[in-house]
Amino acid sequence: MILLSGYCTDKGLLRTENQDSYGISEETSLFFVCDGMGGGVAGDFASRYARDIILTSYKRLNDEEIDGIVDNYKEFESKIVRAVSAIRLANRGLYNLQVKYPLLSGMGTTFTGAVFEKEKNLLHIYNVGDSRVYRVRNGNIKLLTTDHSKIKELIDDGKMTEEESKTAEIQSMITRALGTAPTVKIDYKSEIVKSGDVYILCSDGLNGELEDFTIRDIVLTNKPNTVSIANELVLAANNSGGRDNTTVVVLYAQDEINLNAVEDVSPHEDIVIFESETGKETEKEDVLITRIEKSIGMEIPKLAKEKNVFTSPLFLTFFLILLAVSVFFVYSHFYNSDVEKKSIVELTGNISGINIEIKTLPDSKIKEIETIRDRIFKMQVIQEALKDKNLLIPMSNVTIMLEKDGQNKFMGLSSTTPLEIKLPNAQYKMTLTYPSYKILDKDLKLKDFIFLNFENSNLLSNLTVIMIPNDIMT
Question: How would residue 302 be classed by pLDDT, with cut points 50, 70 and 90?
Fold first, then answer.
């Protein structure tokens, strides 16, 4: 059996740039799609970085290096854990870059991919995020991956229907991605490939616009031409709205002459989760990722490394001296007792922004509070709980949006570490979105948004916002 491949990618009708990337390696039979997130240069860079690291490391890692990265899964063959190692390295590298370059904070990317093991006619499938793998066989389409998204969780919990999910405001809220945490969980499964099978690897720009049966019909109409299938799928997604980037990689299974099917192959038909790495494994990853970045000449976006000359120590020292002399001169010659006196900090502040952290109460405390019927007593318990800073836990994947005069000025996702936001001096409306949670203000009232004033300072101000389930007060 051989796999013929084709692909197509497009930025869509509403987006100004394409943050999707794809990887195709005929040599190693590795195929995948990445959907970047984080806005601007960060999302585009995240998907491209993951693509380059995964393609390179999958090909170059030796068995000893793989064992060091995936140390706790000895029962899996090298062919399987090789891809896990490459995906883990991409995640670790993206996370480390955000620590080193705060301007890249909030970036990440999905990953969905497949490795074809020709000797066994096996397709190994991996997934992190909400990009998908479909299979079309005998006129039927089947989704082979599970979305790691808040919508999927709500549907599984019975809190949202499939129909309601199509218009939900949290379409882009995913619960797992590469780069958003120091370690990553990876879904894995495998299946036997049959002649005539068509596999569709896609970003959510495709399934966000097209129903599964439409994807199937386009595949059947254009089969076996993989390039035509890919092009027609992307065209149909754009014709249906094109609200997002759309990337499609198509694989078609074709028999080779005189090739007999392999017998006694046991695929992993149920999803296996490769859990997050151990500390020992991340240490190995840090060593390897540095070496791989150097070998492929990885370039960091200029935006991430930009340094404002006005914030350099030398310039600030000179500026402060000059300003102090000027202030003294003005004070000495034009002093007016009615003029407000300002401190040096107020006169020389040069940074406008915040380090924001979203926190909540642990589930055990929330359940305890929900059992309290008396509202006054319930509020007292909440107040006492909030005083214990060690009790509060960080919330990841909260969508943070800042607006000014109705225009979006910033959007990102929270993580376990504070997120740095720099914006010009102004008042901003900050909306925090997380399913079934709301902001808890100082008066213990639940809100969807709050207003923030950004003012110049020598340091970014630290802000902690508390969110709790919106039905906890009932």
Answer: confident
In order of 32, 46, 124, 144, the CA distances from 117 in angstroms are 15, 28, 8, 17
Which residue in this structure is represented by tokens 């799928």? 233
* Nearest of 393, 394, 422, 228 to residue 306 by alpha carbon: 422
Consecutive H or E run containing 400: strand 399-404
DSSP string for residues in 49-75: HHHHHHHHHHHH--HHHHHHHS-S-TT
- Interatomic CA distance for residues 131 and 111, integer angstroms: 7
Asked if residue 108 lies in contact with residue 94, where contact means CB atoms within 8 angstroms, the answer is yes
C-alpha 380/C-alpha 371 separation (Å) is 14
* Residue-by-residue DSSP string for 182-227: SS--EEEEEEE--TT-EEEEE-HHHHTTS-HHHHHHHHHHHTT-HH
Which two three-digit tokens encode residue 34?
């990445």
- The per-residue pLDDT for range 381-427, each reduced to its tens digit, is 888 888 888 889 999 888 888 888 888 778 778 887 888 888 888 88
Quick: pLDDT tens for 178-226.
999 999 999 999 999 999 999 999 999 999 999 999 999 999 999 999 9
Residue 440 in this model has a pLDDT that exceeds 70: yes
Token pair of 466 as six digits: 């508390």
List of long-range contacts for 66-71, beta carbons under 8 Å, 24+ apart: 68/281, 68/284, 68/288, 69/277, 69/281, 69/284, 69/285, 69/288, 70/274, 70/281, 71/278, 71/280, 71/281
The sheet with strand 140-143 has its strands ordered as 2-10, 246-254, 198-202, 132-137, 140-143
**At what angle are helices 375-387 and 363-370 packed, to 10 degrees?**
160
Here the tokens at position 72 are: 């706790």
Q: How far is CA 229 from CA 31, 136, 194, 248, in A?
A: 16, 12, 19, 9
Structure tokens at 103: 């301007």
Strand partners, 410: 402
Please give the Cα distance from 74 to 85 (Å, whole number): 13
Q: What is the pLDDT of residue 378?
A: 82
pLDDT at 81 over 80: yes
In tens, the pLDDT along 246-284 reads: 999 999 999 875 445 555 678 888 899 999 999 999 999
